[in-house]
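Let's study my pick:
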Amino acid sequence: MVLAGKLITELGIKTPANKFYKLFAEELHQVQVHCERVHHTKLHEGEDWHDTDTVKHWTYVIDGEVHTSYDSLEEVDEENKKNTWKLFGGDIGKHYKVFKLTLQVTDKADDGTAVAKWTVEYEKINEDIDPPNGWMDCLSKCTRDVDAHLIKGEKVAT
């Protein structure tokens, strides 16, 4: 059985790529306000949410169950609107040796829409652990929640 894998989902969003990416790149602490499945997040170590030396603690729902983990920002590519976070500890550490989330946002067309691409790279601690398919559902739902909030805010501002 394979211990390592990669899951990818691409979701069309109505928010322009720059605006959607900005929330994750500069306002990550706001995700818990917009996503129903993210219950709480706080800085665990460090002072800046967007510094690679900072560790955040998350509480969230996957497959109907509350989970916790920590993350650190591993890679920032502002030019390509792409960030990678390493998740560890908590419930992640019980099941995975390696767990990385990558978000890349690209403009889709001249109409202001975009595509949010989430990639989950993982290595299970043993073959009895299931792939993190529930994460794809969670990321899809959070993407929809954030997109709806940003679009709503855009309509109010105009």
About this structure: Strands lie at 4-13, 38-45, 55-62, 65-77, 82-88, 96-107, 114-124.
